[in-house]
């Protein structure tokens, strides 16, 4: 397995006044483990060369214009994506006075991350090896904009880039983050060439609001993935059997040329984000989850690429480290 890491990609949200416990320690501690286990880590600032057209193949014109717009437009995108301002104008988990850096820097950060996700996917396709991007995984970003801490859907940008520039016909997206890959589902609904599986908390964010709005229109986050596996609160014992079954369903849709795995660590019982608390897998279950996906793809000869997605608090690195250490210890590499 090859690992790609951009040293500029570490993001401490507190420096921007955003009080969300996504800290750089998750990546740095995982890096230490990778180096101890002699993984090949490529430290690089060079992502795939993305153009506006690549973003327009996923997101709306208006959103992409803002993404490359004025500093004010870009800052507004971040305020919306991180839900920093409530309906009555009050700040939510946001204290601009404590910020030492401007919010629009986060847009550049996400664009860099997206370019490296695309490079990881392209290298996995070229070499047939597993390629891991230590970052990315913005699965809540929808066609019309960012939400749930996710600005640009780097996963679907990568899938469409491979289709546009490498002639790829079929791709799987396997999303094991605690939260539903709702942006990914919205962006790929009706597109047979990108098959999506999401295993997530059945209740809680993003599915705790009414399915239909006041006008009777369905909220986009209720758009189903091709295989949607909701785990009810307290039913962790169902998780691994359901995932195995879901992978079988995905396979019935036909084999892909590449799979993108959205490997959030927030289903872990020690995750500190309140909205991921309805799913509490043990470290052993997290490792089983990751081996199940890895083995499923490897035994079928499907190139696989990974993004980190969600994972919050001081223990967020543990599932990633258990996965990488486990690959070595069990002779899977
Ligand atoms: Zn998540």
Topology overview:
Elements: E1 2-5, H1 25-36, E2 40-43, H2 52-56, H3 61-67, H4 71-81, H5 105-127, E3 131-133, H6 154-166, E4 171-175, H7 182-188, E5 194-201, E6 227-231, H8 239-252, E7 258-262, H9 283-299, E8 304-307, H10 318-329
Parallel strand pairs: 1-2, 1-3, 3-8, 4-5, 4-7, 5-6, 7-8
Helix pairs in contact: 1-10, 5-6, 8-9, 9-10
Bound molecules: zinc ion.
Percent helix among the residues?
25-40%
Quickly give the CATH architecture. Answer: 3-Layer(aba) Sandwich
Number of helices: 10
What's the level 1 CATH class?
A: Alpha Beta
β-strand amount: 5-15%
Largest sheet: 8 strands, parallel
Overall structural class, as computed from helix and strand content, comes to alpha/beta
Could you give the order of the helices and strands?
EHEHHHHEHEHEEHEHEH
Oligomer: single chain
Task: List unreliable stretches of 5+ residues.
Answer: none
Total discrete domains: 1
Ions, cofactors and other ligands present here are: zinc ion
Give the end-to-end Cα distance, rounded to a whole number of Å: 7 Å
- The CATH superfamily appears as Histone deacetylase domain
The CATH topology comes to Arginase, Chain A
Integer-rounded radius of gyration: 18 Å
Q: Walk across the major sheet and give the strand order.
A: 2-1-3-8-7-4-5-6
Number of strands: 8
Write down the overall mean pLDDT: 95
